[in-house]
Amino acid sequence: MGAMAAGVAVGSGASAQAKESSSDGAASAASSVGDAGRAATADPDNPTADPNGYVPDCTTDVTYIPQCGEYPTPKEEAPDQTEYSCDVLVVGGGLAGLNAAFAAAQDGKSVILLDKSTPGYSGLSAWPSCTAYYDPDRDADRETWDKSMRLSCFNFANLNWEDVWCDESLATYNRLKEWGWVEEHPRGVDTEYYVDGNMFHDDLRGYFTAYADHDRHKVFMKVLNDNGVTVLDHTMLIDIVQNTDGACVGGVALAYRSSTVLSITAKAVILCTGNGVIKPMGYPVGADTFDGIWIGYQHGLPITGVEFEDFHMTTSYAPSNALMHNSWQYVEQIWRTGGTVTLEKLIKRAGVQERTSSYVDGFDYSKNDNTLMDGKEEGTSCSAAYAAGDTSDPRSGKWTSPNPKGHVYGAAVGMNVHTASGIWCGIDDTVGQTSIPGLYVAGDGTNGCYVGGPNYGCQRGSTSNFVSLQGYRAGQAASSYADGVAEAQMPSDVVSQIGEYALAPLSVTRGYSPSWAREALHAIMAPGWMTIAKSEDVLNAGLAQVLALKDLVHGKLVAQNGHDLRLAHEVEHQILAMELKLRAGLERKESRGFHYRTDYPFCDDNYLFYIIQTKPEREDDAPVIGHVSLPDRWVGDLSEPHEVRYPLFDTPEEYATYAPKEDGKPSSASDASKTVDAVSSK
Amino acid sequence: MSVIRKDLEACIGCGNCAKICPMDVMRLDVEHGKSVIAYVSQCMTCGQCWLNCPTGSIAIQSETATFGLNAGR
To answer: Among B19, B24, B47, whose Cβ lies nearest the Cβ of A323?
Structure first.
């Protein structure tokens, strides 16, 4: 940072701007910009600047030191309208929210959609690179499918939702295709813009510009506009509002850039708020902050699935650079996947999870380079029909241009595995209806439904399709509900109470920066002993630390601007989610899917239940923990031997004990045998 | 890793970056018709601002811009 006086913005204006001389690609070094101590220059365009270039602090946000050479951060004008009314309020503009809003609008409802950023560019939905569906004419029969889901998901998958997915995923795919979200254009490596897969060498921006009319992100706004959906962007839902009957009748939101409170009366509300992460260390999902989990929990709804950890990878040599090994997949087309289940290959793979072995045994530094993922080698997760020569099946798999390979985990610290976590709606639910009348939930991290089990065991790409399907069904259900209720009215005292809560961090004079609290939480949760290979002592230690942080900062996060106001609320959500994660991890004294306990390293059939946590009556008490037993069909035949019921052998101990052996040696993948050797030699 | 300014003069104030940044890093100074890298410590290098900037005013750098941890703030 340059030498700057506290509380004033220095050196504003283009005249102080150093020029980058590099080509159109990304700048690879910072040294030419932001030189420390560069003389400030008066800005002829800015009459408020004094001859030394100092700008009074009355018109700008001075709570962040601006980048050298940048104009001061401007104040944002408050929106003219602060009170809204609609039939259906959709919160979150990802794939779930888009489909929810579309379904309700198609059903003739007036719809308002909130997004913390802009639909298409926020949350998880900006980042998929493939989408899957079930094709009844080409894919395995449903009995085989069921068995595959059970075995690949540790007898833990929600097969009611799987049924719905098999029935409706093709229609969902066709809708996404019709919208232009799925289309085809040349992949990077087949164009002049590709050099070697390194984002600092390739001309990614040139490629993007050449094919910008194919950009799938802007499809979202077109669908919403075409269907008359009112979009309130850069707006965060602070809380939902229940009336005296307990029904959800709208919400109070924050247009955070101008610190303006908005009230939105609605007959029904659909939360599509996405998953969550403490800090995005290479998977760019930082705007997802467990908002739905926090809101649901405050209103007494059960929270589930939080003990199963995310699996995204980053590179050890460029951690937190999301573009390093994802640059091409974020700008190329959405690849078609799915239909990978066959009788011969009932499960995805058998062997110790790479994330476990790479952490437990140490990271493989022979891969510590920009080894390319060779997209030409195979179309990952192509359908069995395509693999057998049916080239008319568009599910040819992922053919992303070669990129450096992500080889260490922790790209999304705190995130839960796809579709498992969120608000639990019940065994029989397939529309996202919560126990609060008028409140629906849809999408990854918000509707905790385990369609991919505890490990995203379905084939690659099913999440983007599934959350679209789930949003659509929630939109239809919310629309039907709205047909049957009178005009909604929000209790004014509740609305003003939430409004005050929304703005409270602006009035805190002594407290803690939300950025600091987030970093402290990250420091507690990031190590592999908290997420990848856990144990009782460590989880208890982590919980003690998270509770200490919570006690210290709860209600004492300071915001001096709208940006920090959003952050303050997000951090409260992140802290709660990590508390629930650790408590669920302690409760699950077994290993299953992406929950590995070194002190309980085997799948245990006594734990064939979903853990739910609800808010206690007394604020200071621990969350109330409950168990949801799973239907017989979901958990398979309990009389079968362990190695038949759990053929993935996911943990080192499972592998060493149960994996088939030839000549006394494990017979599966070399990674797995390495792990077993390493474990047995300790 | 973060967004960085490459050429402020090239910025035409279209507001694309401020509109699509999911982390509220980018803002638009309407008065001067320039974008502002306002809250860079939140940048997660998704690169959407850089890709969608029509004039190449911004870039992505390999240096880390992050928050320093201490006892409390």
So the answer is: B47
Distance CA(A317)–CA(A304), nearest Å, equals: 34
Note whether B43 contacts A: Cβ–Cβ < 8 A: no
Cβ contact A89:A465 at 8 Å? no
Phi–psi pair at B35, nearest 5 degrees: -75, 160
DSSP annotation string for A89-109: EEE--SHHHHHHHHHHHHTT-
Domain spans of chain A, in order of start: 1-75
The residue among B2, B23, B49 with the most chain A CBs within 10 A of its CB, best to mutate, is: B23
Residues B24-52: tens digit of each pLDDT: 999 999 999 999 999 998 999 999 999 99
- Inter-chain Cβ pairs, chain A and chain B, closer than 8 A: 168
Q: Which residues of B touch A278 (CB under 8 A)?
A: none
Check CB contact under 8 Å for B1 and A208: no
Q: Considering only CB atoms, which chain A residues are within 8 Å of B14?
A: none
- In chain B, the domains with their CATH numbers are 2-61 (3.30.70.20)
Whole-number Å distance between alpha carbons of A115 and A98: 11
B19 with A233: Cβ contact below 8 A: yes
CB atoms within 10 A of CB B8: 24
Is residue A531 a contact partner of residue A413, using CB atoms and an 8 Å limit?
yes
Tokens of A150: 């059970």
Summarised one tens digit per residue, pLDDT across range A144-165 is: 999 999 999 999 999 999 999 9
pLDDT digits (tens, 9 = 90+) for A429-467: 999 999 999 999 999 999 999 999 999 987 788 999 999
